[in-house]
Amino acid sequence: xxxxxxxxxxxxxxxxxxxxxxxxxxxxxxxxxxxxxxxxxxxxxxxxxxxxxxxxxxxxxxxxxxxxxxxxxxxxxxxxxxxxxxxxxxxxxxxxxxxxxxxxxxxxxxxxxxxxxxxxxxxxxxxxxxxxxxxxxxxxxxxxxxxxxxxxxxxxxxxxxxxxxxxxxxxxxxxxxxxxxxxxxxxxxxxxxxxxxxxxxxxxxxxxxxxxxxxxxxxxxxxxxxxxxxxxxxxxxxxxxxxxxxxxxxxxxxxxxxxxxxxxxxxxxxxxxxxxxxxxxxxxxxxxxxxxxxxxxxxxxxxxxxxxxxxxxxxxxxx
Length: 319
Hints:
By secondary structure, the chain is α/β, with parallel strands linked by helices. It folds into 3 domains: 1-98 and 200-220, Periplasmic binding protein-like II (D-Maltodextrin-Binding Protein, domain 2, 3-Layer(aba) Sandwich); 104-186, Periplasmic binding protein-like II (D-Maltodextrin-Binding Protein, domain 2, 3-Layer(aba) Sandwich); 221-312, 2-Layer Sandwich (Double Stranded RNA Binding Domain). The protein is built from 11 helices and 13 strands. The chain has a 5-stranded mixed sheet, with helices on both faces. Strands 7-6-8-5-9 form a 5-stranded mixed sheet, with helices on both faces. Helix 4 (128-137) links the parallel strand 6 (122-124) and strand 7. The longest helix is centred in the first third of the chain and has 17 residues, at 12-28.
């Protein structure tokens, strides 16, 4: 009997995702057993600093990639939004699972909706993307950093450290945690544009293993793959890292693929928004072309300044 080893982070959500993929593989390949190699990533260890200050998204994937390169795993299951656009030699991001609901969700023990928050209310989020869009809409709010796993964040909310917090809806749904929060309000995608890859799983494999490639491709959803590759091309071209507020989302409407993106300062100012469309049959360069349009209109200057002012209160402690 063949055996496949999946590298996964040890957070509750990461394990849910890995077991989901394990079950799908074993259903498609009854003669295969799947085991999990549970790895604590650096991003899971350092919970007292914003992600951008500990090296960005790669701190959720590096240890899993190292395990694959060392022969300790055949594939890794990632939240696609955590996967950098650079993939190490010897590995490939070959499959993307069908994207689920990408919405962010407003959570509170005091207020029913974002609109109900009083002036000066404290909202928790670590995401610069969310911070930018929140403060663009409600500059009167106080946005404070929020780290920790999902349960830690929800505990901080229940303790009254924040008037509200904003998280990705899909993770709370998968872990069945929404029922324990008095007020939840899913945010419209037009008012809170998601990040690249939100609500999809990325399947990364060792390049030279043809059987694992075959298995991974049974997990792939072509429309989601097309959309997220365009999003990743946009992020790669514009060079946006974790310390820059960037929102980016692609959708399909019949035979047309659309992408919208937003960049700006973390305080909600100097926001630039653009969208573009192309036929699915001619969409290979859509993400890169949109990024080039941003660049021609001065996006790099905005991103550079945004990175300089992001987490400025935390930077001295890090240095």
